[in-house]
Each structure stands twice: as C-alpha cells, then as structure tokens.
Description:
CATH architecture of the domain at 2-148: 3-Layer(aba) Sandwich
Number of strands: 18
Amino acid sequence: MIKIIYCIDKRNGFSYEKEMPWVNKEEMSHFKKNTINKTVLMGRKTYESIGRLLPKRENIIFSKDKNLKIKNAMVTDSIDWVVEKSIHEDIYVIGGKEIINLFLPYADEIIESVIRKEYKSDMKLDINKNYFKLVKSINRKDFKINYYKTKILSGYKISKQIKNELIIKNNYLIKEYNKKPSLVIVNVGDDFASSIYINNKVKLAKEVGIKAIVKKFEKTTTAQLSNYIDKCNKDKSINGILVQLPLPSNIDTNKILNKIDPLKDVDCLNNINIGNLFNIQRESILPCTPNAVVQILKRSNIKIQSKNIVIVGRSNIVGKPLGLLLLNENATITTCHSKTNNLRKITSNADILITAVGKEKLITDKDIKRGAILIDVGINRSKDNKICGDIDFEKVIKKCSLITPVPRGVGPMTVTMMILNLLNATNLQNKKTTN
C-alpha cells in the first residue's frame, strides 16, 4: 500500500522548526511509532531537512539524479517501480506538493494529512495563515483517513438526468412541427432477451412522450422484412426505425440494416451513418452504446482529451465506432482484440479501460493500474446465473478509482442514447422537408 503522510511546502529548502511549526515533538513521535520498520519515500530536499528526524531504516529517495548516493537509502525516479514495490509492502510518502501530486493517484490512504479530504491534484499547497488554521482543524485522534475510495459510475442515474432533457427536447419538437415523434421497433422471432430490451426501449419512449410501435414477426424472410422497412422509410409519420438484433440466421442482417433510411436509423448501424462518424455534426445520429460510454465519461467530469484509453473488443457495434468517437475527443486510443499479444501489459497502462468482449471476469486487478477508470460494456451470465460484465468487479474495486457496474451501468445509457438519436433524427427530417 502507498500511504501519504504530511504535505510539506518546499520553499527554497525549508527548515523543519520554522516551516512546520504544527508538527510538534508529540506528533513526530506518533509518526515514528506508526512507521517504525516501514519504508518511507521522500524527495531529496525533504530528506536533507527532516531525514535526520526519522528512524533509521531503508528509505527511498525519489530523484532524477541517478548519480545521487545516500547512505541507507535507495534512489529511484521510477513511479512504476515504487507502485510495484507497494504491492508487497507499505510505503509511506512524505514530501512537498511535487511528490504528493506524483503519488496521490496511487495512494491507498492519507495519514495525518494537512490537506483537505477532497484534495485535487491542482490544489495549491502554499503555506499561509488560512492554511495553518486548516491544519489545526484536523482531528489528530483520527490517525487514518481513507482517501482512495472507488466511486461507482452509475449509468442508471445519469440516464435519469438525461431523460429530463429529452422530455424538454421532445416537447419542443412537438410544438415546432405539430406532431409527436414516432418509433417503429421490428422484432423477429421469440428471443427472450430481445423482448426485455424492447420493453425497456418502449418504456423510456413513452416516458419521454414518444409514440412507440412494436412490429412483431414470428417468421419472415429477408425479402419480406426488406419490403416492410421500405414502407416505413416512405411513411413520413415514422421518424425512427430500429431492428432488434440478433436476427434469425436465415435473415441477411447486413442487407436489412442498410435498407433503413440513414435519417431514420436510430441504432446507427447503417453503413452511411457509420461513415458519417468521420464528420460528426451537432445533431448527428451516433452509435448508441459507444455514445453512452462517451456521455458517461463527460457527464462524470472525466477528462478524455490526451488520456491513454484502451478498448478491449473490436466489434462493429461497440469497439470500432467507440474508437472513432474517442478520437474525436482527442484521446489516445489503443484497441485490443483476440489476436493481441500481451494484453495485460497494454491494459495495465490504461488511464481509462473499456471492455466490450462478452467474457466473464476477463479483466482482474492484475490487468489494471492503480487509479484506473473502468467502463464495462460486457454483459454475461455467471455460473450462478447472475448478470455480470467482462471485469471482475470484486477484485478491481479496491484498485480502480471509478467503475461502471453491471447491470445499471452502460446498459440504461444505451437506451437513452437511442431516444436521443430519434429526437435528433426527427429534427433533421423536418429540416430537410422545410429546406
């Protein structure tokens, strides 16, 4: 474990007695008692200032000066080496804001911290009168403060927030074009899972105020289904067409999906709409699940730009289009698949890891770095018949910083993005008619 202890402001080389008046002898004794025979990591100046006050032990000096040699201390400039070492033993980090900012993302605990519990990496740690008051307000009896507590990214909660926005947008479209947007869902066969998904879509559509019609085919052919979709394309009262997948094996799925008018393709599976991902407009029709992932990140105030994002899975429905959407957000993307060599080496470097494979417990704590953000798109059935994702939730929960659960993660947001597509499609169709 990595534990953060004391935040010391490095101002041109400080003096322990002058710059740290709140750290009295009693507290230092308390510190020594709790770190005896433990490994302490600090910067060079911190060691020079207060190293003499620490018990003699094997310390780590974090410095870029590889020629630096200090008695009874190891010198390193590798964060990865420190994190790897922390798996097997406790490492206490003590130092100024530079050291704290480097190791805070990997911390398991903050001990006797002189910073706020809601510490942010860009928070200034300058010592001043107000800061001294903050220090004194800390309850010294509560020696341990849990810091690195994993937060759940609830797609269900976010979808509830967006639903209110969809209702407002739908009401605007009804007022603007004097008609209620409508959706046709085509269901072929008697797949039980498909029925559940369709019910969820119809339920949300009605809650938003959209007319939803389910067209059920017990048995059909590619030609018959194609003819029905052609009729829907020509029917101006219908704004969205969704073909529930998977289709029976006797149906040419690719032909059916590309038969749908691109302006009515609310699932964004038509080849023309996929091609449009290279030139996204303000009200573009976007792939539902990939857009759900992006919206979860954005609405959780998670920075995407410049982040190292790894996608495990290259399906046409999720993996490939998701990579394009994230590229549009200026992320650095790596896509992995069944032929990828040394998957763990790649995933363990990801700032954000997204899985869309459909393989239970594919990703464990050994496959991620500490503090990673995990988005689980996979839906599987466990041996005890419970719904689960691609990520071993119980094993990663103590190591990641944020994670979407399965269920109630990406799934509810996928349905919400489909309704958003329908409203955007309705607006685009009416604008085209007007022009």
